[in-house]
Design goal:
The chain is mainly alpha-helical. It has helices spanning 3-26, 51-63, 66-78, 80-85, 93-108, 111-125, 159-169, 173-188, 225-242, 245-260, 284-299, 303-323, 354-367; strands spanning 31-35, 38-41, 128-129, 134-135, 150-152, 199-202, 209-213, 339-342, 347-351. Helix 3 (66-78) packs across helix 5 (93-108).
Length: 375
Amino acid sequence: MTEKLVWVDEAWSQIKRKLERTTNKMGANFPHASVEGEYVFERPNWWTAAFWPGILWQVYQETKDEKLKRVAEECEEKLDQVIDYFYTLHHDVGFMWKLTSVARYQLVGEEDSKRRALMIAHILMGRFNVNGNYIQAWNNWFEGDDKSGWSIIDTMMNLPLLFWASEETKNPRFKAVAMKHADTVLSHFIRDDGAVHHIVQFDSETGECVGFIGGQGHAPFSAWARGAAWALYGMTLCYHYTGEVRYLQAAKKVAHFFIANLPDDFVPVWDFRIPVDVTPYRDSSAGAIAASGLLLLAEKVDSIESKLYRSAGENILQSLYVNYGAWEDESEDGLILHGVSHYPDGKYVDNPLIYGDFYFVEGIARLKGCTAMTQ
């Protein structure tokens, strides 16, 4: 057995060992960020609601542990209240039901999960603005608020729900919407050097691009690391589902930018272009997302390129395991430390984040040969 396989197996064992404790503690809830060792729970409509049950399904895929299955199913059932209320549904429903309902349907064949996922795919498709060929991000949350022209890079990772729906129903319209949105990302989000805008604002009536907003990055033209990770992984998934080379080329462009800007320990700073007076906190979540995407990208290219992307993904995951893992700390619910949720708003800076945990688990599972839940 090689050295790399040894650490991967060790990491997988540590994940399972930690879940034995945290599954009982967190139950069927929706953790977001860990504060002083304990995960803060969010409302079920929050965008991160599926990452905890997604972790459970990812591990269940190998272990067939009925306790993990039961808790993940309870989380999915709680999400029904979000569907019924409707008004708080948003662009991240792809995350929320791909990692819950689609995962359950694919793993155990439950028809009610298929129904939920197809219903949500229709709702996500309904957010598509035909004037600008983009999926609208958030809703108008208060009187006078107008986000009808806002679209964000994160939505790339919600497109797999639409691709899945097309395959499941043999109806091409879900796929067509996903590809039109991805093409808009190619035109307006990914810059020439591979850096990525977080938010692009369009005129919702004419479809014209009218500006860029920094969002969770430092500034409109900085280089938010997690945004680059979403783009890298999202474009790779678009290529996975369509075989269209333009998506593969975009994934490579962002991957090269991301890899070239990694520090010595392979875990990115939260924004690759911050002024010297801004604290360069590491974002372990951006590293985990990018690593899982790089491993998938390595499967899509020839052997020479494959070695580059796979090595980069492995280096990030190994560093997260060795340098950022909270394996022996029983007072810490999170798996990996030092994530940055929203630096400009001062939200959960230098905390474990549930999506960082999810993509770390997914990356390790991918190295072990398991299918990723985002595919």
